[in-house]
Every structure is written in structure tokens, then in C-alpha cells.
Amino acid sequence: MTDLRRFNGQVALVTGSANGIGKAIAQRFAEEGAKVVVADLNLADAEKTVSEIVKAGGQAIAVGCDVKSSAAIEAMIKTVIESYGKVDILVNNAGDVTISKHFFETDEAWWDHFLDTNLKSQYLISRLVAPLMAKSGKGCIINMSSGGATRSHRGMVAYDASKGGVEAFTRALALELGPYGIRVNALVPGLIATRPEHLADGAGARRDATIPIGRGGTPQDLAGPAAFLASEDAAYVTGSCLVVDGAVLVQQRSPQIETFPVSQFPSVDSL
Ligand SMILES: NC(=O)c1ccc[n+]([C@@H]2O[C@H](COP(=O)([O-])OP(=O)(O)OC[C@H]3O[C@@H](n4cnc5c(N)ncnc54)[C@H](O)[C@@H]3O)[C@@H](O)[C@H]2O)c1
Questions:
Q1: In sequence order, what are the residues at sequence separation of 6 or more whose Cβ sits closer than 8 angstroms to the Cβ of residue 30?
Q2: Ligand 1 atom 1 nearest Cα
Q3: Residue 2 lies inside a defined structural domain of this protein
Q4: 181, part of any domain
Q5: From the centroid of its chain, how far is CA 246?
Q6: Does the Cβ of 22 fall within 6 Å of ligand 1?
Q7: H helical segments located in the chain
Q8: What pLDDT digit, counting tens, does each position of 124-148 carry?
Q9: Cys bridge to 146: 61, 76, 77, 163, which one at CB 3.0-4.6 A?
Q10: Based on the structure, what is the number of domains in the chain?
Q11: Atom 25 (ligand 1) nearest CA
Q12: Distances from the Cα of 181 to the Cαs of 120, 137, 139, 164, 240, in angstroms?
């Protein structure tokens, strides 16, 4: 829980915010005074998230939306404008990580699913929201990327390609929207546990051992960075991809082949 209320009077639209990282970001914006739109494919979970936000003293509405559909996006934005009249902060978070397949076993529908869900949706939603922001002279767009944009996952050729596109899209959009007072940035999460299976049967401990900072991430680890990017403290930050990953991306050797393991580091007592 934060004491800051940096977003009083603002409206934040967070896609894919019924669960996981998007939910933590939506909750954080609500705690800081924003009216939040919880837009998600899963309307039942979106409504639960809204109940939690309202119970905690915040304001939010749930909107069902499949971000793969331009018609559904148009309907969602219409509802947002009818309900709250504007969008100050857009977080293009909705994404699918779930279907891993070897390249040889994939098909066009698989490729289109990831590119449409993770990348094209960000274009379609920004295309409708940015003109509204431009008319008010300011706005902030945050696109959810992944470490997969830079270092690849096995079985996720289309996912990683979509996230590489997210980072290029973010930089390009920042150039075109800067003159209208709109900042565009990306968040680059590392290994964030959003489901119980991520931590089951010792998976959490095995994962923690591979992360330089010593632990895997939680959805809440992305909430503060998202709020920073949307805040006036980030007034000069645009076109950037903020990595939030406990130093996973900058690690050259995997821990299994590390020649200078943490166990050989000096103890604090010896300093
Ligand atoms: N969890 C991680 O380790 C991790 C790492 C890097 C990047 N990311 C990115 O963060 C974002 C959120 O991931 P998460 O781990 O919180 O996922 P999650 O599966 O926990 O939650 C994703 C939410 O998005 C919704 N969603 C999925 N497809 C949708 C669609 N077509 N339309 C609308 N809503 C849809 C789901 O219903 C769900 O509520 C994604 O863009 C993902 O690629 C996650």
C-alpha cells in the first residue's frame, strides 16, 4: 500500500488486468487515486478485480474485451469514454505467453495469435486512445514487453518476435507522439510468478537460484515502475524500455555453468 496519490482525477486503462501483472498495476493506479478500467477477455475475473479495488477504497469498472478484435476494442473504448470521459494513462499489458511449440510444429494461426494478441492489439488500442490524449495535450502509454525481445525463449518464436515488435513500436510511437505531449515507454518484466504453477514443486526455488538479485519477481514488482512511468517524475522519459528483471538480461553465463558462483563471493562479515 502506498501513501502517494499521484493520479487523482486521472483515468487509467489497463488491458489484461483481471489477473497477473496487469491486475497489480491496476490496483496500484487505483490506490494512487486513478479511476481504473479493468479490460480483459475474462470478464468474471475482471469483475472480481474491480470488487477488490472498490473494497480497498478505489474506483474501477470492468470491461470485457478480446484485444485480438478491433470491433471489441472499439466497443471497449466507447464504454470507457461513456463511463469516464477520457484516458490519461494507457497500459497495453494484455498478452499471451501460454502455448510453447517448436518452430517445426507451428502454423500460421499460431503465429497470428501471438502477433495479434501481443503486438497488433497495442497498435489498435493506441490508434484509438492517442488522438484523445493529443486533444488534451498530454498522455502516457506503457506497452508490456518481455525479456524475450532481447534474449529468446525456447518454443516461443512468435512470442519473442511479438515482443521485439513491441519495443520497436514503443520507440517509433514515442517519436510520433512526443510533439503532442504523449510519452510512450515499455516495461520489460523478467521471471514474474503470476500463477501457482510457477512456484509449485520447488520451481520457485530453482528459478530464484538463477536470478542475480536472488529471487523471482512478483506482479507487484511491476506496479511501482508502471506508476513511475505514468507519473510527473518521468516527465522526460519517453521511448525507453525499462527492464524490471532482477538483472536476468544482463547475466551472460547461466548459473549452471558459472565459473564464479555466488558461493565464492566474500561474506558480509569479511568486509
Ligand atoms: N509473467 C511473466 O513472467 C512475464 C514476463 C515478461 C512479460 N510478461 C508480459 O506481461 C503481460 C502480462 O502477463 P502475465 O504474466 O500477468 O499474464 P497472465 O496470464 O497472468 O494475465 C494475463 C491477462 O491478460 C488477459 N488476456 C489474455 N489474452 C487476452 C486478450 N486476447 N484480450 C484481453 N485480455 C487478454 C488474461 O485473461 C489475463 O487476465 C503480458 O504481456 C506478458 O507477455 C509477463
A1: 12, 36, 53, 56, 58, 59, 60
A2: 192
A3: no
A4: yes
A5: 16
A6: yes
A7: 20-31, 43-55, 70-84, 108-114, 121-136, 157-177, 203-208, 220-230
A8: 999 999 999 999 999 999 999 999 9
A9: 163
A10: 1
A11: 16
A12: 23, 5, 7, 25, 16
Ligand 1 close to Cβ of residue 246 (< 6 A) = no
| Assigned C-alpha cell, 99 | 502455448
pLDDT at 1: 64
Atom of ligand 1 nearest to the CA of 19: 39
CA distance 153 to 66: 25
User: Is the pLDDT reported for residue 110 higher than 80?
Assistant: yes
Query: What is the average per-residue pLDDT within 195-216?
Result: 90
The 3-state DSSP class for residue 6 equals: coil
Query: Residue 155 sits in which domain range?
Result: 11-270
Most ligand 1 atoms within 8 A of CB, residue of 15, 25, 49, 96 to mutate: 96
- Residues with a catalytic annotation lie at 159
Using an 8 Å Cβ cutoff, are 208 and 215 in contact?
A: yes
For residue 231, the one-letter residue type is S
Identify the CATH number of the domain in which residue 108 sits.
3.40.50.720
Q: How far is the CA of 112 from the centre of ligand 1 (A)?
A: 17
92 lines ligand 1 (CB under 6 A): no
pTM of the entire structure?
0.97
Across the strands, what pairs with 91?
A: 14, 142
For residue 138, report the phi and psi dihedrals to the nearest 5 degrees: -160, 160
pLDDT attached to residue 197:
84
- In the reported structure, the alpha carbon of residue 270 is separated from the centroid of ligand 1 by a whole-number distance in angstroms of 44
Contacts of 86 by beta carbon, 8 Å cutoff, 6+ apart = 11, 132, 136
Q: Is residue 5 part of a domain?
A: no
Cα(97) to ligand 1 centroid in Å equals 7
Helix, strand, or coil (residue 184): strand
